[in-house]
Design brief:
Blueprint lengths: L2 E5 H15 L3 E5 L15 H5 L4 E3 L4 H13 L3 E5 L10 H8 L2 H4 L9 E6 L14 H5 L5 E4 L3 H13 L4 E6 L6 E5 L14 E4 L4 E5 L3 H13 L5 E5 L2 E3 L4 H10 L2 E8 L4 H13 L8 E5 L10 H4 L3 H12 L2
Parallel strand pairs: 2-3, 2-4, 4-5, 5-7, 6-7, 10-11, 10-13, 13-14
Antiparallel strand pairs: 1-8, 6-12, 9-11
Helix pairs in contact: 1-7, 3-4, 8-12
């Protein structure tokens, strides 16, 4: 199997290119995605190779981007919309929740909306509010939408193609702080043989405690597990990958073995994904738990100024502290 060393951003670019090659109905649209190649250069070179009818520079109007994509999807196209930054998605929120999420249900299954909404999300790049946010809970809460997040180059390459091939609308969350991290990517592996899109995966086996994360926090969780090993603690790390539908099968199996669970995400803790995950694990694994399910999250404040964002974001020390508290029960 041929492999290449790619950054996560380049893996997304390569996956988008493969999707454009394989299906003439795939179109990419968004602000500056064409000639510029996107703010993070994820669509770099695609307009040059596929033309401005398939890689479309749109006006600065997120609601218009999504609304146009709905019409294209109804007509049989597979639009891939880029929202330039996470905080810019809110003008399109009405379209996403009122139209994209409900069209299939409203039409009694007669109309499908096969579209992908790409959103670079999370902090860690020294930006300000509207450029460093975590809106995943809004979309995971909305019936009719599917929500996924990649955490490494291999998953980025495969998951973006799987999302585009899906007949359902998918919010595709990209961890912007990880765009430049490199990894091995199997570029010629058949998509049919790839790991399922809506399935979590154990990325580090362990026996003492379970750490659940997704997107940018998977790397943080893995770093915490490496540090914990120096103190003799064996942490199992699970990359959730899919937030709606939420796949906790691997998490249940893990927690029944370890008896302890810590959930990590950048978004504020109040009504975040960690709340739902903790509730489900408590319901399913109550008699296996040696301590409460703990959460390590961002704080319940607007995203702070860049100079103090590292105080806001969960880091290795905060994850290890939660693990220590879990063992203290």
């Amino acid at each position: 199997m041929a492999t290449e060393t790619l950054t996560l951003g380049k893996a997304l670019n390569t996956g988008l290119r493969r999707a454009l090659e394989n299906d003439p109905k795939v179109v990419i649209m968004g602000e500056d995605v064409g000639k510029l190649g996107g703010v993070f250069r994820i669509t770099d070179g695609l307009q040059k190779d596929f033309g401005d009818q398939r890689v479309i520079d749109t006006p600065l109007a997120e609601s218009g981007i999504i609304g146009t994509a709905v019409g294209l999807a109804i007509r049989g196209f597979r639009p891939v919309c880029e929202i330039q930054f996470d905080g810019f998605v809110y003008p399109a929120y009405d379209q996403i929740v009122s139209q994209v999420a409900k069209m299939h249900y409203r039409s009694q299954g007669k109309v499908r909306i096969p579209m992908v909404i790409r959103i670079p999300f999370g902090g860690g790049i020294g930006a300000v509010e509207h450029h460093s946010e975590s809106p995943e809970a809004y979309f995971a809460h909305t019936a009719g939408l599917k929500v996924v997040s990649c955490s490494n180059p291999q998953d980025a390459y495969v998951m973006i193609q799987q999302a585009i091939a899906s007949d359902d609308p998918i919010v595709f969350l990209e961890p912007k702080r990880r765009y430049w991290e490199k990894g091995q990517v199997e570029v010629d592996a058949p998509l049919a043989d790839a790991y399922p899109l809506h399935s979590a995966r154990v990325v580090r086996p362990g026996s003492d405690a379970t750490v659940l994360a997704y997107g940018p926090m998977v790397r943080t969780a893995l770093d915490a597990a490496t540090a914990a090993a120096e103190d003799g603690r064996d942490l199992e790390v699970i990359d959730l990958r899919t937030l709606s539908p939420l796949d906790l099968t691997a998490a249940y199996e893990s927690v029944r073995r370890t008896g302890r669970c810590v959930v990590v995400h950048e978004a504020p803790g109040n009504l975040g994904m960690g709340s739902e995950i903790a509730a489900r694990i408590t319901e399913e694994c109550f008699y296996s738990l040696e301590s409460p399910v703990l959460r390590v999250t961002g704080f319940d404040i607007p995203y702070p100024a860049a100079r103090v964002e590292e105080e806001f974001l969960p880091d290795l020390d905060r994850v290890l502290d939660a693990v220590d508290r879990s063992f203290g029960w």
